[in-house]
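TASK: fixed-backbone design
INPUT:
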């Protein structure tokens, strides 16, 4: 019971240093509670795209919330333990064992986690209806969907909060237990032994794990790197690795960022550089929230833009048509469409390829029917107006008994029979006429009109023969399309109107995930900067006694915090760059000519917000620490 009383007293005394961890954990538990309440209602509810979107959004947000909460709690307690080395040394000097010191830290974490988890459950119960209502209005949840009133989601969220807390504090508690009685005599604030064997092992292990997962995906299935679950979870491994290796990675970044200021200023640049380098544990604690904020923003926003740009580039590479004729309405009669096609074919110097959407279900060897979108095609026209990535066979071999399909379906042998179910439910067996390279899921199936009952032409692609007068041919095409009310678009106009783009739901899901994560990290950053700066009262007072004015000391402390925040932003950009480079490599292996996409705007905005949080917090904390006479602050 003695250690429990000590833990309670410590929490009462140092509660201000743990506000950030408390709020981050409470919000993380609240998000988990909302997610589980939504999932509890979703179980047994009628399925649908909106419901699937809701489950995906809540699941992703809950997972990221748990990760960010654990990261913030671990970072906060790690630095708090480092600050209290003298305190733990005094406990050891008074007779406390290593196990008792560890239990005191774990007890503090348990009490903090219980209070934060209880607050998070209450907040989750209150906020769930409003959040779900917003999701319904945004189209991410089916109309009329409301969170359940079951009790088990709150219990699960509460215990998950405790688990996250204890998991994040376990290493810090072990470090606290290693404090010896002589640490009570410690006076110097220089960080020594920051990179322990365990920190090296975990940091390099996570880095190696991320490299192995990425390398395996590139070798076996490059398209997997473009899936949401992959580009959402894999950056977490790199973020954790960089957080553990921050003392090693931060030193060269600090040197690089201060190289010019150290030469342009008389003393400020050198002092800021040496202070940040000497106190790597403090620098790492401040840089960690910025690292996770910038890395998540760059990875998620960049991944969405990369996939969108890749789909657009793939659509552009597949289309060789010069003009695209789009029928006026979906209700255009079939005879009118047939007449339109014949009128276009009568234009001299052009090749015409009409196509329309249909559905097919391919029957797997185990008897399961897997549905897919497909398109009707005229073999000769398709070969002329499309640049399909054929790996085996030929598109011109497509006939009423054939099918063209991507390699991802597993039917890669030309002539192989494929049992299918057509749109009207009839069954037949088609042979593989050509196999396409897997792209981003848009290299679909092609069959002739005979195997697409009920399909209606929704576009007619037109390509000019070499040497054709393009202006005259375009005029004739427009004249042929006029009587049916069809619209004639140039290739670029049609691609701009129909090329795949990032969906609104995908952006809203990303905003939901990033919004919560940025709130956590902003609070953690402000809390850590205030805690770290206020703990430097003696150091700041020594600067005053050395002749620096109060304004100069405040500027030095503020500049150091800004520098460390910039270090976190650089490391975060490095994590995002590695993630986006892996995706770009996967696209290259898939043969998709996608451009490089760098999310400068969101990354710059988040980095700027982090600086706006760190600078005033450091300035106000330094000014508060200097409110007493320097001599009284030194004698402690």
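OUTPUT:
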């Amino acid at each position: 019971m003695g250690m429990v009383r000590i833990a309670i007293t410590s929490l009462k005394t140092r509660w201000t240093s743990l506000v950030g961890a408390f709020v981050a954990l409470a919000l993380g538990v609240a998000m988990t509670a909302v997610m589980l309440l939504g999932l509890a209602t979703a179980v047994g509810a009628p399925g649908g795209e909106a419901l699937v979107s809701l489950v995906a959004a809540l699941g992703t947000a809950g997972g990221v919330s748990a990760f960010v909460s654990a990261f913030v709690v671990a970072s906060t307690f790690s630095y708090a333990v480092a600050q209290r080395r003298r305190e733990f040394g005094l406990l050891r000097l008074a007779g406390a064992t290593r196990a008792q010191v560890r239990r005191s830290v774990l007890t503090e974490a348990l009490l903090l986690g219980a209070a934060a988890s209880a607050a998070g459950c209450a907040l989750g119960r209150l906020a769930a209806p409003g959040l779900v209502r917003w999701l319904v209005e945004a189209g991410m949840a089916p109309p009329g969907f409301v969170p359940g009133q079951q009790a088990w989601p709150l219990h699960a969220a509460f215990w998950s909060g405790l688990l996250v807390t204890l998991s994040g504090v376990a290493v810090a508690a072990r470090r606290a237990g290693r404090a010896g009685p002589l640490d009570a005599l410690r006076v110097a604030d220089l960080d020594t032994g920051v990179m322990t064997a365990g920190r090296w092992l975990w940091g390099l292990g996570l880095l190696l794990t991320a490299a192995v997962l990425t390398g395996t995906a590139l070798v076996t299935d490059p398209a997997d790197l473009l899936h949401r679950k992959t580009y959402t979870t894999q950056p977490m491994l790199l973020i954790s690795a960089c957080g553990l290796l921050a003392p090693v990675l931060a030193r060269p970044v600090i040197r690089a960022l201060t190289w010019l200021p150290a030469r342009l200023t008389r003393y400020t640049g050198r002092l800021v550089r040496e202070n940040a380098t000497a106190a790597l544990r403090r620098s790492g604690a401040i840089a960690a929230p910025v690292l996770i904020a910038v890395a998540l923003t760059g990875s998620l926003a960049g991944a969405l833009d990369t996939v969108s740009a890749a789909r657009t580039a793939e659509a552009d590479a597949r289309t060789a048509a010069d003009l695209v004729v789009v029928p006026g309405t979906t209700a255009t009669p079939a005879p009118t469409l047939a007449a339109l096609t014949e009128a276009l074919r009568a234009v001299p110097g052009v090749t015409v390829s009409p196509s329309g959407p249909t559905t097919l279900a391919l029957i797997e060897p185990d008897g399961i029917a897997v549905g897919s979108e497909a398109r009707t095609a005229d073999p000769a026209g398709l070969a002329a107006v499309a640049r399909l990535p054929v790996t085996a066979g030929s598109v011109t071999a497509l006939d009423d008994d054939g099918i063209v399909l991507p390699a991802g379906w597993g039917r890669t042998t030309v002539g192989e029979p494929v049992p299918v179910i057509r749109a009207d439910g009839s069954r037949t067996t088609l042979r593989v006429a050509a196999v396409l390279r897997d792209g981003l899921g848009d290299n679909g199936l092609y069959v002739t009109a005979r195997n697409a009952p009920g399909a209606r032409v929704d576009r007619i692609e037109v390509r000019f023969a070499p040497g054709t007068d393009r202006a005259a041919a375009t005029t004739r095409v427009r004249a042929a399309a006029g009587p049916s009310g069809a619209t004639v678009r140039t290739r670029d106009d049609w691609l701009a109107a129909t090329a795949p783009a990032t969906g609104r739901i995908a952006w809203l899901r990303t905003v939901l995930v990033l919004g919560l994560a940025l709130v956590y990290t902003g609070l953690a950053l402000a809390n850590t900067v205030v805690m770290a700066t206020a703990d430097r009262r003696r150091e700041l007072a020594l600067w005053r006694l050395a002749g620096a004015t109060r304004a100069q000391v405040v500027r030095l402390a503020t500049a150091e915090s800004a520098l460390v925040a910039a270090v976190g932003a650089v490391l975060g950009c490095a994590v995002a760059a590695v993630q986006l480079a892996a995706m770009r490599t996967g696209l290259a292996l898939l043969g998709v000519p996608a451009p490089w996409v760098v999310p400068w705007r969101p990354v710059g905005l988040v980095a700027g917000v982090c600086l706006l949080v760190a600078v005033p917090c450091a300035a106000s904390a330094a000014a508060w620490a200097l409110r007493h006479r320097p001599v009284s602050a030194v004698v402690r």
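COMMENT: Residues 198-319+502-636 form one domain.
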